[in-house]
């Protein structure tokens, strides 16, 4: 879950890091989104959050080419490709973020 949250904050910082916004305004918007995110996860319930965290904890992958396969390396941000949970998490976050526009 930490990786998911980190990728969301990176995106928010990119979106709100416009030249016409001061750093204080950017920080305020990021904090507002962070509070909304925590509210979402509180509404999900503790057991659901723990289950999602377990899915994204200590995930590794490797890259396979026609000639060889790399060593496993950790995935720190992002969602599992092809996972049915990925669109649900994305939609959950997008609904909350879109409410401010």
Automatic annotation (TrEMBL):
> Could you tell me the superkingdom of the organism this chain comes from?
Eukaryota
What this protein is called in its record is Uncharacterized protein
């Amino acid at each position: 879950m930490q990786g998911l949250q980190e990728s969301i904050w990176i995106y928010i910082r990119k979106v709100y890091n416009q030249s016409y916004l001061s750093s204080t305004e950017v920080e305020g918007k990021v904090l507002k989104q962070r509070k909304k995110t925590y509210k979402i996860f509180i509404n999900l319930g503790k057991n659901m959050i723990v289950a999602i965290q377990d899915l994204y904890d200590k995930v590794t992958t490797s890259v396979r080419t026609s000639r060889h396969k790399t060593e496993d390396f950790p995935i720190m941000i992002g969602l599992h490709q092809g996972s049915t949970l990925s669109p649900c998490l994305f939609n959950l976050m997008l609904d909350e973020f879109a409410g401010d526009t």
